[in-house]
Write a structure and sequence with these properties.
Helix 7 crosses helix 9. Helices cover 65% and strands 2% of the residues. It is mostly helical and 221 residues long. The chain has a two-stranded antiparallel ribbon. It folds into 2 domains: 153 residues, Hypothetical protein af1432, CATH 1.10.3210; 54 residues. The relative contact order is 0.09.
C-alpha cells in the first residue's frame, strides 16, 4: 500500500471538502484532550487503510485497521519515527475499532492483553475513540458519563492485577523446567502462553496460582 500522496492527489483531497474537514476535526478533537504529539499522529493516520479496504458494493471498510497497521509498520521508519513512536501509532491504528460497550469481563481482559501486546495506553485508546466518534456525524456521540463508565470498566479489570504477560505468572519458565523435567526450548514459552490464556480466561487471583498452573501445565504434555 502506498503511504504517500502526490501533489496532485493532495490537491484532489483538499477539494473533497467534507472528507478533508473530517480528518482535520479528528486531529482537533484529540488535541483538545491531550497535547501528546504521537496521539495526534495516530488521529491523523489511524484510518489510512480505508481507501484500500473500501468496497463500493456495500460501502464498507472491512479490516481497514489491519491494512493501515501493516502499511504504517512498513513505512513509518522512512519518516524517522522512533521504534517506540511507531509502536504507539501502529498499536492504536490496529485496535481503534474495538468497542468496549457490552463487553463481558473476560472480553475486556482479552482486549487489555492486546493493549499490552501492542503497547497501547488505555487513556490514549479512549481519547482516540472519543475523537473518532465525535467526528462521525452519522452516529450520536457518547455522553461524558458514558465515557467515564467505559474508563471505569477498563480500570476495574486493570486493578484486579490479572497478569497480562508471562512474566507476571505465578509459575515461571525455570519452575516448569524443574517441575516437569523439561529441557529449555520453545515448548516452555508455548506452555507459558497457554497458561497466560488460562488465567485471563478465568480471571481473578485464584487462577494465577503456582500449584494450579503446574497442574494445568501437566495437562498440556
Amino acid at each position: 500500500m502506498k503511504l504517500y500522496a502526490s501533489e496532485d492527489e493532495i490537491k484532489l483531497l483538499k477539494q473533497q471538502t467534507s472528507w478533508y474537514e473530517l480528518l482535520q476535526q479528528k486531529v482537533d478533537n484529540v488535541s483538545k484532550k491531550s497535547d501528546d504529539l504521537w496521539l495526534r499522529w495516530s488521529a491523523l493516520l489511524h484510518d489510512i487503510g480505508k481507501p484500500e479496504a473500501f468496497t463500493p458494493i456495500d460501502q464498507k471498510f472491512i479490516s481497514h485497521e489491519i491494512i493501515g497497521y501493516i502499511a504504517l509498520k512498513e513505512n513509518l521508519h522512512q519518516l524517522t519515527f522512533s521504534s517506540d513512536e511507531i509502536t504507539k501509532i501502529c498499536g492504536l491504528t490496529k485496535l481503534h475499532m474495538n468497542s468496549i460497550q457490552k463487553m463481558t469481563p473476560k472480553a475486556i481482559r482479552k482486549l487489555l492483553k492486546k493493549f499490552n501486546d501492542e503497547g497501547v495506553d488505555v487513556k490514549d485508546f479512549l481519547r482516540l475513540r472519543m475523537a473518532d466518534r465525535k467526528a462521525n456525524l452519522s452516529r450520536e456521540n457518547f455522553t461524558i458519563s458514558e465515557w467515564k463508565e467505559m474508563y471505569k470498566i477498563l480500570m476495574t479489570e486493570i486493578k484486579s492485577d490479572i497478569p497480562m504477560n508471562t512474566h507476571k505468572l505465578a509459575i515461571q519458565g525455570g519452575d516448569l523446567i524443574r517441575e516437569l523435567n523439561l529441557k529449555p526450548g520453545p515448548i516452555i514459552s508455548d506452555i507459558q502462553k497457554c497458561l497466560l490464556c488460562f488465567v485471563i480466561e478465568g480471571g481473578g487471583d485464584l487462577y494465577n496460582d503456582y500449584d494450579l498452573l503446574l497442574e494445568v501445565a501437566k495437562s498440556f504434555l
